[in-house]
């Protein structure tokens, strides 16, 4: 037999063996998965409503403006609290805003995200708010927390907006031996001025906490629409908001903080400083690198203060407070790094530095000497979980896991808690 014929027969036999070994049978595979719950676009975009005061169960970010404290109820809406007397805060209304996480206020207009949209609301009378406009699809890839593994490419836009998740058993036909690698089912830890009937609102912006992803600069609103995308909206006419710029940032952004004509961006790998003298087009001035971490930042005239923490999706194992010299914004540099327990939000007022150190509580320092901050601790309120703060005119407003706390720090040697709004457990 010729050599070529022998090789052909051998090849044929091997092919037959491999074909027989390959199992092409199908089998039914069942697994539990979070599947999306859709709301129609028409129902979603007519869902804004004001209700009577509601229980605070899952607070997020907060914002202060003209004696009112606005507290986000995560992905549900905003609690409106009359804080004209910080010792007696009074809930006066709840704004139902589906998917809300961030907010900012300019004059008498509240700007809030609502899943994929940006909503402007006239709050001249806080008990009779009026939706002025809705800019659609500003945040096109936003989904409710619950299944970060659900691919955006699988979203069926024809069904509307994803507003929740439902656990279902999925049964599919696959080849024998098929294995689904993704993680489908599990929990995610969150914390990934006037009279009560309305009054005179000042023309400028209010004050946000250090975890803010919205920032106002005169007639413009800056928004982190995606971790790497910064959008600038013209809000001079609340009934006709326009996106003026969309810039991709080569880092994952976490927070925005304004100091004069400079914007400080906290990212997972460092602090960025942008010039916003031309508000439509922010221009990067400099950056400061740090280890990978979730990174809120605040600043005063000479220093920026950054907290880095572990236990987050930012994959960091360090818990630090870093003080950065920004006297030359073009050349920021680290002055001192201090160990912390698990720091979250922070705030500054005069020589005082307020740090929410997670479940280690609130810590207050004299920051006049950046090299001696830990040695100059003024007060420590331990044993409760803290998230973010807003210090303003000797009143510290703090949101934590267990409630909303307020402190009078007019006398730094005798700081006193003046009120507490309890969070109702689900």
Low-confidence stretches: 4-8, 18-22, 177-198
Largest sheet: 6 strands, antiparallel
Q: What separation lies between the terminal Cα atoms?
A: 83 Å
Oligomeric organization of the protein chains = single chain
The main sheet orders its strands as 2-6-5-4-3-12
Q: List the total number of helices.
A: 2
Question: What is the rounded Rg?
Answer: 26 Å
Structural class: mainly beta
Mean pLDDT: 85
Helix content: under 10%
* Strand composition percent: over 45%
Overall geometric form: globular
Task: Tell how many strands the DSSP assignment holds.
Answer: 32
Explain what the structure shows.
This protein is mainly β and 426 residues long. The chain has a domain at 27-208. The chain has helices at 3-21, 41-44; strands spanning 26-39, 49-51, 59-65, 68-73, 77-82, 90-96, 103-106, 109-114, 117-122, 130-135, 161-175, 207-208, 214-217, 220-226, 229-234, 242-248, 253-259, 262-267, 270-275, 283-289, 297-299, 303-308, 320-325, 333-339, 346-349, 352-356, 362-366, 377-381, 386-392, 395-400, 403-408, 416-422. The chain has a 6-stranded antiparallel sheet, with no helix packed on it. It has a 4-stranded antiparallel sheet with strand order 7-8-9-10, with no helix packed on it. Strands 13-14-15-16 form a 4-stranded antiparallel sheet, with no helix packed on it. A hairpin with a 7-residue loop joins strand 19 (270-275) and strand 20. The radius of gyration is 26 Å and the shape is globular. It starts with a helix and ends with a strand. The model is unreliable at 4-8, 18-22 and 177-198 (pLDDT under 50).
